[in-house]
Every structure is written in C-alpha cells, then in structure tokens.
Amino acid sequence: MRTKNIYNPKRLLLLALIGVVGMTGCKKFLDINQNPNNPDSADPNLLLPTVEASVGQVVGNAFQVYGGMYAQYWTQSPNASQYRGIDQYRLTNTSFDRPWLTIYRNGLINADLIIKNPGTSLEYTKGIAYILKAYTYQLATDAFGDVPLSQALQGNGFGSPKYDTQELVYDSIFNYIDKGKALLTINSNSPGAQDLVFGGSPTNWTAFANTLKLRAYLRLTKINPAKAEAGVKALYAAGAKFLTADASIKYSTVGGNQNPLFNETVALNTQNLVASSTAVNAFKRNNDPRVNKFYDDVAGQTAKSIVQGSFNSSGVAKLVAVPSSLVGGNLANGTSATAPVKLISAAESYFLQAEAVARGWASGDVTALFTSGVQASFDATGFPRDTEKEHSFSDYMNNAPDALAAVNAPAMESKIKAIITQKYYAMCGFQGFEAWSEYRRTGYPNFLITSVASTLAAGKLPLRLLYPNSEATSNLNFPGNQTIDVPVWWGKNTVVTPAP
Amino acid sequence: MKKLLQSLFVVLLFAVSAMAQQRTITGTVTGKEDGLPLPGVSVKVKGTKTGTMTGSDGKFSISVSESGAVIEFSSIGYISHSRTVAAGNVINVSLESDAKSLGEVIVTANAIKREKRTLGYSAPTIKNEELVQGGSPSVISSLAGKVAGINVTSSSSTPGSSSRVVLRGGSSISGSNQALIVVDGVPIDNSSVIGGSSVLASVDFGNRGNDLAPDDIASVTVLKGPAAAALYGSRASNGALVITTKTGSKGADKTSITFTTSNTFSKVLKLPDYQNEYGQGYIDTVAADGKSATYITDFKENGSWGAPFTGVVQPWGQEIDGVRQTKPYSAVKNNVKDFFTTGFATDNNLSFSGGGEKTTYFLGLNSLNSNGVFPGNYDRFNKYGVRFNGTSEFSNKFTAGVSFNYTRIDANEVGGGQGAGSVYNNVLQTPRDIDLPSLADLNNKYNGYGYTDAKGVKHPNSYGYYGTYTQNPYWILQNYKNLNDVSRVTGNFNIAYNPYSWLNIKERVGIDTYSDRRRTLAPKYSFVDIDNNPDGQYAGTNTRSSNGNYQIDQFNVTELVHDLMISASHKFNDDFEGSIMIGNNIRQRQTNSLSTGVNASGGLVVPGWYNLNNSNGPVNIITDQLTKRRLVGLYADLNLSYKNFLFLEATARNDWSSTLPINNNSFFYPSVSGSFVFTELLKNSSINNILSYGKLRSSWAQVGNDTDPYQLLTTFSKSTVNGSFGSTVFPFGNVAALTAGTTLGNINLKPEKTAAFEIGTELGFLDNRISVDFSYYKSNSKDQILTIPIPNSTGYGFSLVNAGEVQNKGVELSLRGTIVKSNDVTWEMYGSYTKNNNKVLSLMPGVDQISIGGFSGMTAVAAVGRPYGEFYAVTTLTDDQGRTVVDSKTGIPLSTPTAQYVGNYNPKYQASLGTNLRYKHVSLNVLFDTKQGGVFFSRTRDITAFAGVSAETGGQRLGAIFPNSVYKDASGKYVPNTSVGYIKQNYYGSEPAGADMVDGSFVKLRSASLSYTFTKEQLKRTPFGSFAIGVYGNNLFIWTPKSNQWADPEINSAGAGNLQGFDFTAQPSVRNYGINLKVSF
User: Fold this and answer.
1) I need a labelling partner for A228 at 20 to 30 A (CA). Which of A152, B285, B401, B453 fits?
2) Quick check: A330 and A337 in contact, CB under 8 A?
3) Closest CB from A39, A153, A263 relative to B716
C-alpha cells in the first residue's frame, strides 16, 4: 500500500540525524573522567612513613622469620606447620613475591618518588629517603644477590629492569649514603613526626648513615678487604659519629600499628615459632640471663627448646618456649604488639666499631667497645643498670666464656669471633636477618648446626633467599634462579661449617 | 507451514490498495503470548483482492464493502485467524504463535520484533513454558542445555547462587565474558562480586542477573554473536540475552489471574568418596621394612591417619570432669552425608493480566523462601518481587508503556573456602569414626564451647569439642553470618509516536538501581581445651582464638539508559521493501562501593556486638569508591528484503565514551548480515516435499569496547604495607601516609575491537517435522585493554595496555524432530551440540600469560597459544610416557620443578538431549546435558586427602607402590617402579596443587517435569480457567568419570566471574525436586 508523502522521508531522516548529533555535541557531558577516589600527586612527607613502614615489614617480619630461623634462634613448632619449608631448607620462589614487592613497590619506589620530587625545602626528607634507599637495597642484595637497580623503579621506562651485580649494588649503596648525608647538611624543613624513626633529626640520621656505611664496608671484608679497609678508614678520617641508640620503629597495640611479626602471627592465629636449642643452649652455656628475656616460658618450662628442625621427630616435646613478647614473637601475650623493629641497634653499632678497631682500621679500645655493645644489649633486654641486677651483667662479662675472656684473646681472628658471637646474642629475636648475614660473612657463631629437617645434601646450609616467582614470570631480564646453598657475592670466600 | 507461506506469497502478490468507499476497519494485531504489537501481519478480506499489512506498531486499516465480510489475519510463525466484520469499526486480534513454525517472530536487539526468517544470525528463543519446566528459580540456570552455543555454569543450584552464562566462549581476557542481559530493551546489571576475604572464600552472594523472577518472563532470545547485538553497543560484544517480560493483552474479556506455587526439596548432589578403614590419629613410626607402623590415637586430631579400625569400644575426645566418652572404633560411613539435611523452598507467584481496548496491564507478585541443605535455618534465602507492565494508547498516534520491577532479597549465605568461617572445610576434616550429627547439640559439654563443670563453675573460655585444629561445624553455622540485603528497582517507560504508517518515533528511558548490602559477622572468642594434660597421646593445649570481625560491604549501582529510535519503512515495489532506523543511545552508570569493617587485626572489643562502634582500634576503611561513566552512541539499522526470501541488514554505530582519553574516545563499528530463504525458489519442485524450509544466513560484525573509569592516570592511595598475612595500616598513630599506586595508567588508551563472522543454515524437513539449525562462527578480539603484570622491580605491579588477541571458533548444531504428532500424542525430541575452540593468539611482547585469578599455588591464566582459562601449577612429575616419577627411596611422587599447564576449565564440547512427550493432558519433559573435557581444581580433594578421609587415601597405606610409576636409577634412566612402596600419610596433604586437578566432565539430568492439565470440560463447574499440576526437578542426577570422587564440576568458589573451575572447598551443589500447581481464574 502506498501512501502519499507530504514530506520527503530522506529530508526528515537527515533532520533527525542532525538533531541527534546536536545532542551529543556537548563534550562537557563526557568530560567526567576525573578520579574522585585517588589523588594523582603526593607530598613527599606523606610518602616517607610508607618507606619506613616497608622496611619495618621486611626486617621485622618476612626477613625476621627467615633470619631468625636460619640464625637458629627459632625453629618450627611441632604443633603447627607454616614454616616447615624454612627449616627443611626447601623454599619456594612464590614465598618471596611478597617481601620483594614490599621492598620495591612499597619501599624503594616511594623513596625514589621523594628523591625526584621537584618541591623545595625538602632536603631533610630527601636525605632520609636516600639513606633508606641505601638501607633497603642492602637488604635486597644481602638476601637475593644480584638485583635490579640501575634500570629499576622507572615504570614503563624499563619494563624489564636488568639485574645489576651485587658489587655495583654495594657501590650504589655507598653513593646513596653520601648523597643522603650531603642533603642532611642543608638546612630545610623537617619531616618531623612523619619520620617514624628519628622524628626528622638530621643528626641522628647522619649517625645512622655512618653506621650503615660501616656495616656495608665491613660486609666486604672477605670479598674485597682492601676496599673495606679504605672505606672504613675514610669514614673514620672524616670524623664520623655512629649511633649510640637504637634506630627503630616503635609499634603500638592499635590494630594495624602492631609489631609486624606479632601482627602476622595474630593473622595466622598460630604459634609457629618456638625456641631453638642452638641459641638457647649457647645462652645457657654462658649462663646468660638474657635467655629469659628473649624467650617466654610455656606452662612453667624454663626456656625449653627443641633441636633445630626437629618438629617432625619422634618424641619431640610439644611444650616449648616461644620467642618473647619483648621481640614480638609471643602470640599469647598482647604486649608483643609493642616490640620495636630495629633497623640498626645501638649494640650493633658498638660491635661494628669494635670490629673496625680490631681489624686495625680505626683507633680505639676493642674491649671497651665490646663491653658497650654487650651493655647496650643488656639495656635493651631490660636489665636495670643501677640495682643489684647489674651484678649479673658484670658477672656475665667476667665469667661467660663468650664474653671478656673471648674478646681479650690476643689474635685478631679470636677478637672478631668474640665480637660477632656477642653480636649474635644481642641480635636474638631483634635482628635475625642481620645476624644470619654476619654468619654468612664470617662463619660466626660457629655452633650453628644443620637443621635436622634439611633436604639439602649433607653439610649444606642456606646461604641466600630465592628470587621471587613474580620476577621469573614477568621480567625478560630475569637471570635465572639460584639455589639456596649458593653464597652471595660477598660470602663467596667464607667457609661456613655447621657444627656436628 | 507450506500453506501459510503460500498464502502469504499470494497476499504479497495481490496486496494492492483498494480505494473502497464503504467502511474502514481499523485495529491492532498483537501476539497472544506477550501482547506486543505484531508488524507485517497480512490482513486480507476473504474472497477479494483487498489486503494490507500491519505497520510496525501492529496497526492496520482496511476497507470493506459490506457487513459480514470475513477478514483473514496471517503471519509467518502464527496460526492464521479469521474474524467476521460485525457492527463496530475496530477489530483487535491477538494471534497465537505456531510453536513449531520456523517463521516465528522474535524479539531482537532494542526490543525490535523481527521475523526469524529475515535474520542473518542465529537467535534461538525460549518461551516461558520451557524456561520454567525444571522449576529452577534462576533464569540463567534454566537456559542450560536448551540452546546450542550457550555455556551456563550453575554453581550450587541453590536459590540465589551464582550462575554464569557465556556465549561462544570467552573473548575478553580481563573484562566480563558474560552475555549482556537486556530486559524489555533495557540492559540490566549482572555484577558478580564474591563475598568474603578473598575471591576463594566462597561466600556466594550470587549474581544480579538472577534477581529476575522466571515467572515474569515471556521469552528469552539468545543473541549469540556480536552481529546480533551490535545495536546494544560495546557491552553486547559477548552476545545478549534479550528478555521480554509478560504483558497483558488488549481487548481481553476479563482479567486473567494466575497463581503458581512451586515447593522444592533439595538434597546434596555429590559428596566425596570416603575410605572406611582407618580412623582418628596418625602414624608415629614406620617399621624398617615400611610395611607396618605404630600409631598415635590423638583424640584431638582432625586426621584419619590412625590405626585400622578394630570395632573395639574405646575412649575418644576430651576428658571432661574426669570422664572421657567412649565409642566403637569403626567407620561412620555416612557422617558427612548425614550432616546435611533436606532443604526446602517455596516459590509463589500471583499475576493479574488483562487489558481494555487501548490499554494492557500485567501485575506479577512473587516470593521465594528457601532454607537450604545445611542443618538449622541458617542458610536462608528470601526473595520478594513485584512487577508491573502496562501499555496505553493515548490517541491514534501516541502510545506509551511503563514497566516497573522491584526485588528485595534477604539472605544468609554459608561460608566455604578454608577460613575459620568455612563450614564445609570443618565437615570434611572429621575423622571417619566420629559421628557428625552427634555433635549438633552445642549444649553438650563434649561438643561445645564454654561449659559449666560438675561444681557449677562456669568456664566460658574452655572448649570440650574434640578437635583442636578444627571447629565444630554446627558452632560455625550458628556463629558466622554472611548476611545479604538487596533492594533493586528496574524499569522503563517509553513513548511512541506514529504520525504515519511508515514512520515510528520511540523514546525509551530505563533505569536499574540497586543497593546490595552485605554484612559479615565473625565471632570473637578465645577458647582453650578443657582437657589440657598432654600424656603423649595427644597434642598439648591449643588455644582457639579469634579477635572477631564485622564488615559491611555496600554496593550501590544506578544505571540510566536512554534510547531515541526513529524508524521508517518503505515499500518500493511488490518485490522490494526496506526500513531504516536511526537512534541515539545515552547511558550513565554510577557505582558507589563502601566497604568498612572493624579494625583488621584488633577485631571486636565486646564479643557478640556487631557494630562498627565496637571496633578494637581504628575502623578499617577497605574501599570507598565512586565511579561515574557515560556513553553516547548513535546508530543506524537498515533492513532490505526482496520477495520475502532475500534479506539484508546493515548496522552502524558510533560511540563516544567518557572513560577513554578525550581525543581518542570515539569508536565506530559496523555490521552486515544476510539471509536467503532458498526454498522459496523451490516452491513447486518435488524437493519441497522433503525440504520444506531452507535458509542460509551469514553475518559479519565488529564491536568496539571502552574501559572502566579512571584508568588513564597513575595515582596514589592511602598506605598499607602488607606482610604475607598481617599488615601495617596507616594512620600509624597520628601519622598519615600515601603510597604510589599499583597500576601504571595509560593516557594513550584505545578502544578494544572484536570482529566476528558467522555462517549458518536453518532447514526444515517433512513439513518441518524435523528441523536443523547449524552455525559456524569465528571471532577475534584484539587491542584488548589489559592490566598486564610487570616486574615489581619497575616500582609498579601492573601496566594498562592495549594488547592481545583472543580467537574463538566453533560450531553449533540444534536438531528438533517431532516423532509422533496426533491429536492425543505429541512426541518431540531435541538436542544440541556445541564445540568452541578458543585460543589466546597474543598478549604483550614478552608476556606469555596473564593471571585470571586463583591463589599462589594454582592460577587460571590466559597464556599465548593456549585456550583461555588454562590452569597453571606445579604438578606431579611424569616421564615422556606419562608415568609418574617417584623418589627412588620414599616412593613418593616428585613434583615438577616449575609450574606447568594442567588443563583448562572450558569443556571441549557440550551437548544436550531432551524430549517433550504429551499424551492428552499429561506432558513429560526431560532434558539431559553434558560437558566433556574440562578440568577443575578441587580443594575438596586436597583437604580430604590431607585429612586421610578420601577414598584415594584408603587401601594399603604402607608400602603400596604408586600406580604406574617409575624412578630414576643410578644411571639416570627411568625404571618402572615395582619395589619402592610409599607411605600415603607422607604424600597426601603435601602433594603439589596440580595433583588436585579433577576431570570436569559430566552428564546431568538437568531437568525433568511431569504435569497434568485439566481440560476446560473438567473445570466447567469450578472457578478455574485453567488448572495444572506437576512434579519437576532440576540438577537431578549427575554422572561423572570414575576419577572424579569429589565434587560436582559445576560448583565454583569464585562465583560467575572469569575465574572458573575452582572448587575451593565450595558448597556442594544440590538436586532440587518438587511439586507445583498452576491455576488461573
């Protein structure tokens, strides 16, 4: 059926089309893609606490567990199973996805964004960021060996950052420390309370930088003694002041602000870590009163420990002492939440200085520095100085085989053994990873054993952590996995011999 | 059918306008089922050459010369109808569809009605009766097996549980792959946000597409390819389910009142197979020969690794008040089966429909009340809905319609997964000798938490339950809640203006707005074993404690859609006609998600008080996110037809999206399709006697797609530094902090593109007694907007890019045959076969695969050169002959050094077979469907192996040789293992994740129903217009390969998203059966 058309249909359609187009002409209508949920810029002083909290998570939680178990302060509880693989020396690459992420994506990137920020009067904040970047890179390289550095932290600029040698990473660490120290000499606004470690104090951060540099140079004593010596000497020549108090982050009982290890334990809701006989027996051999501070007793058992890795052994005790609330390791004691995470402890600072002097690279009194180190550790474990309790400190120093008697032995190597062994005691529960690193460097203390749960060949020990799975699957420049018993670069010349 | 075609042909030939002077009869022709206007109906005065056709609004106008003339109405797909002209000048007719006809009219994109024969793509339609046959409360689940090319996964088949629908395979790597759901022309939201702490926590709050009540639905048309859906724009690139809800019919004599009630019972469908030889405890030492062992009967153990059953009565559980219970040491074979009860659901629907001369209305009310298979009334799901659909003609030129639907859901979902709130996880770990139902009484001091001792002293913090590593599942059911509260309004109104019979202008505005509020309640407690004197037989004290949790997840989504459509049709000559539509589409989607909880590690202060004011520490703000996006589209649709056997359609659309970079936000996509009904040319040949209908069709389309809002810039967020389990959360004291974002934005983002091609045929044989529908398709999706993982050493975790291409190729075949057709008996068989080959062709250079989800040991990935949805995990090591490599000393299978591809969640093919049998007033419908060839990861397998309860852990536990195994001898050669036995306890529980893959093939009796309809005669003395009664069932039986001893492969912990094939101790699925009644007045 045909209809007589009054209007030309084509014209009508065209008109309609124009009308419709007109409605959409308004660009404003579509200009609504501004994100109301997240800012696209950030004040560097708001990024600084993230960098510090990241260090707190790595040193105080992930690496604390590995370090604490590989330094044999702690072992896997027979009543739980979370860390069995660690005692079995059977690590999986995926276990390291998280700490690697924390290091690069929470720590280093934010430090880098602080450093690159074009704002003014940020020298203190940037100086601290440089020093923390150095500290974090040392953590990464001491754990994993070669790590991305020169091409890292550049987003899509280098989509697959290449891995730099550990030697280059150490050179960069020294460089970052120097840059940070230089910035701290320029008067600027202080980050104040945004700095969780020192409240923005440039003096304290300079001392931290010096101590970190001393630690880093001493790490090279086996692989490049000349460089270590030159570096330490230069540091002393410049009149460096070192830490006399702990550089630590203080946690609270507020949910989410707790000691990271305790927070992790609460989330797991299982007490996995218990006392290892390796450390406990050493403390007992020296009649060391600190043992009851580093471990909490369970059901009246006094510092009962089990052999490293014996969680599956027949007849193993089910009731074992646990890491104390002082070090944040006791699930059943809520005050664990307030345990600090120590980036560098006062005791460590004295022991580092003692080693520098013992090696003849600095002037000073080895015994005095050694005694200050032990004293700092007794202070940190809460033995009051001015009551009769102090008696036990001097008792200890005079009578314990690993105390004055050891450091007063004339040979340099004996002194170093004494210093590192005492540093090992001081770091119990607080600085497990650093204690393990020093063991890997020096072979001290010499009483560590092979975990009875070891799946490695006889005589082999873990000497590094594994690269994360995430890098293996996403980085085209991934250098390939290294097995756990291959030493890192600075540990290549060290022979570690587990005690029988 | 043949006659119908012929008569239409005749009508077309002789349809010339007769300029009669006498009376003009006008009216509207509507479809009887849905009451919608029917265009293109032939209207003819009997015995004359006078004829016309209805316009796009179903209206006609015809002149008759005399009273008593008979007007014939006919249309392909409908039963012809004649009316004698009486006094009035208005004749409204509703035509009944001819269900078996191939020429049916279906609703396609934008609620446009089209004759099926004109379509250049496959678009099967399912009518209400077929949809509700199995009694499933889910519209999506009801589609399973009914259409080729559709992949429906119904997780647990309980009311409110997730069901996913994918058409022709997944094409988007990270976007949604589900079909777009369109109700009465307006797309509705089908979000699936799984509840709980992770996607694998298995709290299934369902997907929003299931809010629809099946009883309100008139029909569902499945538009499978992008060609079919080009007009919906980008969101329909995965195809669309075009749902038409019921309407009243015009000119009905009276209001039709229909009441249906379905009462459904549910039972667990498939549980793991168990061993019944060993009970509670574990091996202490194995003898040197590896063949015998001493056991520890640890009364607090969850493992069944103890000594072989003896049947001897012995003590068990904790010693309380000096007394320990005793029981025989023997298997309680049905302890898990008996834990579950029979669920019950009642689904009631009441509808009123009718219409006046110019109006229609439909009012539907429904309620669904269900109490599932978990004991007690904790797993409940209640849904209430009301729908009103109305249309009205204001004058001859204006019509309006309104549709309104309100849905409310009130539910408590039971948690699965591996967390503390998982009921099933604790059920599965019950030793084989412990009778689960006997633990139900929580007031019994041996079962519960907190007790009063013989002296009347209360011990609120002690527990008497035997398990020190597990929790009483009855206590979990009582104390952990996952409450859900949904209120949803969807609706639309439309106004049409019809100034000329060839021109129609329609404006439609639709809205979909809902609030989905979820509350997660986890108790705060700290319980220590009452019996805490370890005597070497069992573990020391184990404190069970939790700080508790209370979390609110609130999702508000509002979507507004506007469409203006102007359509014009023109008949150029007797052979050639055409129509064009142009339209404008604007849509806006706003979402608001707010997730808050009590402090993540501090939990609650006061136990039992679930309120954010009871947070122990700062309240945890998990998500506070607003999004808004807009899209403006312009589209055109051209239809041409030649002699009613050659059809061509072309569409074009341009979109402008707010989510893309402002200079790159426009994208254009065209489609073209054709249909050729070649049997029209064979009309008078003898072939026509066999091949009564034949059509060839083909289409090509391209669809663009935008992205989510706010993807262009790299941003910062409030800082949280996560450990593996705990985290440091800012503010830290009073110190606030920000952190660099996770994902690098991309300011140069382009739209995604999907191109699809399809060719197919529809054939009808022997007067359409047998029909065949076949399609072949191929689609490529490229320039996908992907968030690809980049090394964390870049400082970021992900980068947003345009990359990657996914290809889907496949065939679909539907067959339908009427074997017997007589007045008393109709017997019909139908079946479908679907095979989709999916392949990820490329990703980013240097990126081999992208994770779709999972957990660290088992991920589902999109990997280059493999089908989408491949599982990737460390698995059991095998040699090149497929034999398991075992350790030469322990006999335990070794693991692969790195992750491997261990199968795919997509089936290799799917098929269905159904029958409809009617004898007089009794009808029987049965439908089987199958999926073959996929795999799934079963944590149910893992946990039952770990606990030593599954059948595979039974038999010889010491010194058995791992089947078909080899070991490496000293020379490094693989030697068949005939001598090195293994200790099962040392293997199960620490086997690699890849060893927990299970064959996902199954055959299901998807649905069955038997109903009796009373005849009009029988109902003469009753008030009922119709009365039918029936029994029905869905998900009734499952047949799985012998190797699947654990679960229904359809269950999925991650809901309806892209992460499929994860039985992460997901709730077992259920079979449903019941009785229903349908009456109308």
Assistant:
1) A152
2) no
3) A39
